[in-house]
């Protein structure tokens, strides 16, 4: 588990709630990996970024049965793009999660 804290880095506006915390969690079992991200704003509206996308690489996995993003299957692709998708690389599985999601639940099953 990891929390990424961000504010403007220049002012004391964090005292008024102008900060963002993104909680990242990884959990692995014998047949799956779970990744989640939760964005929280100090005042409910501040965002240090309009939305963060993710590229995740899981090394040592030869294949994936399915990849779910927020409960829905995402398509297998030949190469990473700006849309949600996954594929196989030389050392494992890669997953692209597009920008703009405030809550992410990713499940990779093999």
Structural overview:
The protein has 110 residues and is an all-beta fold. Helix content is 0%, strand content 49%. It contains no helices and nine strands. The strands form two sheets. It has a six-stranded antiparallel sheet with strand order 1-2-3-9-5-6, with no helix packed on it. A three-stranded antiparallel sheet has the order 4-8-7, with no helix packed on it. It is elongated and about 50 Å long. It starts with a strand and ends with a strand.
Content of β-strand: over 45%
Task: Please give the largest β-sheet.
Answer: 6 strands, antiparallel
Count of helical regions = 0
The CA-CA distance between the termini, in Å, is 22 Å
The strand order across the widest sheet is: 1-2-3-9-5-6
Helix-and-strand structural type: mainly beta
């Amino acid at each position: 588990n990891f929390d990424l804290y961000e504010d403007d880095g220049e002012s004391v506006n964090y005292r008024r709630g102008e900060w963002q915390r993104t909680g990242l969690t990884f959990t692995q079992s014998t047949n799956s990996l779970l990744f989640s991200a939760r964005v929280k704003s100090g005042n409910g509206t501040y965002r240090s970024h309009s939305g963060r996308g993710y590229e995740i690489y899981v090394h040592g996995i030869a294949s994936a049965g399915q990849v779910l993003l927020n409960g829905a299957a995402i398509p297998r692709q030949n190469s990473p793009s700006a849309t949600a998708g996954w594929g196989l690389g030389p050392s494992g599985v890669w997953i692209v999660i597009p920008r703009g999601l405030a809550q992410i639940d990713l499940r990779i099953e093999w």
